[in-house]
Amino acid sequence: MGKFATETEIDSGVCLVYDSGKLQGTTGQTVAVCLLVRVEVGSSWQKPPTPISLQSHFRKHICVRSGGNLLKIYNNQKCNSPNRGCTAKCDGSTTKDAKTRFTIENSRRRKCIQYTDKHDGSKYALKVINGTNVTFEKRQCDNTIGDDFLFDEEKVKGVYKYKHTVISNTMCLGVASNCDDESLYLINTNSKNRRCSFKRR
User: Superkingdom of the source (predicted)?
Assistant: First the structure.
């Protein structure tokens, strides 16, 4: 009878070498059986967020004749300059437009809305300015980003709200009541106010 003659460790696995021995009228054969088991210890890798579009519930159902209803970034050469924000509007009309695709990043237990330019990899984060307005600034959402970029996400029955608090004043990301105004604002929170409601597409 043959036997497992040796056992060899190779790269996170075990290789068993089987010696069949010499049988009558035959030549002995050696067979190696290797079991490779991939083991990751202490890995911090996580699947990156999936790009989504944020669709305004209010603009879709109320402003049906006033253009698009998707959050969209307008990044051009001017807003790539230092301290120049890129315009954020809610006038995107198709999820196939790359400028309506964002990732919702985690940062210090809150959310950061980020756009990644596919051409050069530049990242832009949505920032609150002057307390009531928003813009995209060229920087990455990470754990060092300021509070001006962070929102508390609330989800109810598939509808999302993004709230921002300064001291004790909480407002939500939303659209204007005037359908001709396609800009984004921070507005007073109200459970019945659909201007702050978004769906992910």
Answer: Eukaryota
CA distance 178 to 187: 13
User: What pTM was estimated for this model as a whole?
Assistant: 0.76
Q: Over the chain (201 residues), what is each successive 10-residue block's mean pLDDT?
A: 47 47 50 46 69 97 90 87 85 97 97 96 95 94 96 96 92 95 90 88 96
